[in-house]
């Protein structure tokens, strides 16, 4: 691409400057008309968040993306660069990305006066027009806006009254760019006040200088509603100056969550080629997050990030990979028992209320897994209470009798495929029970459903599941209770 290198060439090319808000508006109009997908990889927001963002851009509004953690706020902000022109011209050497056709700094105006149409022009790519700042309590006005630089004054032998002694902050240096402040409530109130003029009039004031720099910027803020009460707040006058506040949200159903997790999980090429995660296991992983968001042990105000399911999925795959390495197997498929391997990925991903702290993080994580299995079982199999009423016609009766005879099985995380199959098939009546519900199942899929049936029955108090260090043990619930009574009687 041959781009003009001087102001004279730029004028001859017919280039016309436009404010960044207009630039993004024009490009959005074209994108909507041509059915372009501007938010690649953003799933579940097609009918909610994205239309709100588009309306804000068409209105020329600065935005605040408000939502709990793990709702893709920063990712959305970063993808807004797709609405910028590919290149824009700047006066070469300008600190504030001066437009050659309308410079705003004294430096730019002086260069233009000295060199005229021979003024050198450089080109700024859209990828360089995105600036992001994490708000922390130690951020100062000097960091954001600027201050007098005494070292510069001394080196250049300049008076403090000379504009050249000013060291510009990150906001002026982001002129003609998208500027994002993450976690806005973490900014101290007095620092937020410094943003008033920029948002309303588009200019900055530095120390006592009679300085007006009409900045041209697109501001995007992100905030977590929890921060409004726990760490700080967005002061009312600042909120009033932000054109649109857009509410983000978590996935509204399991299928959307599965798409997000599958897209975001970081798996090695070897893992993807050799490890299979059936849809039922992927559903259980996603259901974990839904259970956590409604759990009495989890702080709902803090939210449950999508990172919980992503990390859990990655841990699940690694659990399978470890078993394959131990047993020298080249292929592997997820099992229900592998969910025990995701517990460390859940710990720390949820904020616990007092009751949850009393239970302990590990116990809460196990409770979430159990709740997910219990709910999924009801959706996959007949209600156990209804089957009990069928008496001798109950398809679950033969396997219940097998366990009542004192039999038990252990399913370990490290079991080879051969041992796993052998353990499940020794339970009399289990295969027939599953086939009475899913007659077409066979092979590994049948084994998975057989294992799931055991876990589901245990969660509905039809069997006892004991947690083992390496897996789980299933045995008769009633027989176990009587055995414990005999033990305490000394028999």
What percentage of amino acids are in beta strands? 5-15%
Q: Structural class, from helix and strand content?
A: alpha/beta
CATH class of the largest domain: Alpha Beta
The shape, in one word, is elongated
Unreliable stretches covering 5 or more consecutive residues = 484-491
The total strand number stands at 14
CATH superfamily of the largest domain: P-loop containing nucleotide triphosphate hydrolases
User: Rg to the nearest angstrom?
Assistant: 31 Å
Tell me about the biggest sheet? 5 strands, parallel
CATH topology of the largest domain: Rossmann fold
* Main sheet strand line-up: 4-7-8-1-9
- Helical percent range? 40-55%
Mean pLDDT: 89
Whole-Å distance between the termini?
Answer: 90 Å
Total individual domains: 3
Give the arrangement of secondary structure elements.
Elements: H1 7-12, H2 20-33, H3 49-58, E1 63-66, H4 73-79, E2 87-91, H5 106-115, E3 121-125, E4 130-134, H6 141-144, E5 146-148, H7 150-156, E6 166-168, E7 178-182, H8 189-193, H9 196-200, E8 218-223, H10 227-230, H11 236-241, E9 244-247, H12 254-264, H13 269-274, E10 275-276, H14 279-293, H15 307-327, E11 332-333, H16 343-346, H17 354-359, H18 361-380, H19 384-388, H20 397-404, E12 408-412, H21 417-425, H22 430-437, H23 443-459, E13 464-468, E14 471-475, H24 477-489
Parallel strand pairs: 1-8, 1-9, 4-7, 7-8, 10-11
Antiparallel strand pairs: 2-3, 5-6, 12-14, 13-14
């Amino acid at each position: 691409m041959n781009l003009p290198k001087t102001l004279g060439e730029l004028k001859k090319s017919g280039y016309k400057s436009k404010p960044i808000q207009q630039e993004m508006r024009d490009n959005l109009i074209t994108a909507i008309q041509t059915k372009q997908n501007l938010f690649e990889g953003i799933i579940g927001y097609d009918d909610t968040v994205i239309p709100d963002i588009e309306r804000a851009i068409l209105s020329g509004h600065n935005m605040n993306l408000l939502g709990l953690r793990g709702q893709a706020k920063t990712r959305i902000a970063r993808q807004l660069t797709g609405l910028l022109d590919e290149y824009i011209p700047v006066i070469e050497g300008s600190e504030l990305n001066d437009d050659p056709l309308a410079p705003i700094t004294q430096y730019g105006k002086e260069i233009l006066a000295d060199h005229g149409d021979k003024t050198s022009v450089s080109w700024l790519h859209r990828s360089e027009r995105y600036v992001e700042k994490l708000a922390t309590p130690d951020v100062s006005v000097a960091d954001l806006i600027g201050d007098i630089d005494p070292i510069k004054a001394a080196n250049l032998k300049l008076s403090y009254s000379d504009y050249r002694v000013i060291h510009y902050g990150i906001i002026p240096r982001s002129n003609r760019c998208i500027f994002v402040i993450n976690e806005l409530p973490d900014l101290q109130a007095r620092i937020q006040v410094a943003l008033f003029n920029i948002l309303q009039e588009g200019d900055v004031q530095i120390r006592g200088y009679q300085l007006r720099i009409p900045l041209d910027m697109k501001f995007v803020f992100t905030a977590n509603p929890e921060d409004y009460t726990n760490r700080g707040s967005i002061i009312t006058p600042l909120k009033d100056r932000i054109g649109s506040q857009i509410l983000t949200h978590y996935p509204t159903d399991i299928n959307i969550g599965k798409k997000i997790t599958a897209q975001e999980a970081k798996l090695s090429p070897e893992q993807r080629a050799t490890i299979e995660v059936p849809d039922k296991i992927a559903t259980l992983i996603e259901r974990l997050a839904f259970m956590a968001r409604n759990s009495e042990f989890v702080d709902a105000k803090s939210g449950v990030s999508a990172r919980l399911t992503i990390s859990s999925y990655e841990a699940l795959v690694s659990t399978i990979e470890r078993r394959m390495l131990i047993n020298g197997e080249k292929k592997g498929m997820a099992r229900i028992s592998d969910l025990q391997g995701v517990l460390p990925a859940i710990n720390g991903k949820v904020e616990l209320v007092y009751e949850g702290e009393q239970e302990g993080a590990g116990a809460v994580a196990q409770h979430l897994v159990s709740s997910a299995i219990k709910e999924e079982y009801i959706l996959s199999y007949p209600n156990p209470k209804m089957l009990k009423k069928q008496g001798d016609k109950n398809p679950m009766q033969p396997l219940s009798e097998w366990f009542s005879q004192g039999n038990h099985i252990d399913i370990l995380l490290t079991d080879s495929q051969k041992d796993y199959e052998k353990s499940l098939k020794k339970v009399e009546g289990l295969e027939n029970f599953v086939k009475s519900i899913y007659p077409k199942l066979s092979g590994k899929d049948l084994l998975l459903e057989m294992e799931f049936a055991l876990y589901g029955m245990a969660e509905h108090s039809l069997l006892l599941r004991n947690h083992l260090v390496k897996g789980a043990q299933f045995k008769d619930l009633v027989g176990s209770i009587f055995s414990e009574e005999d033990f305490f009687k000394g028999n």
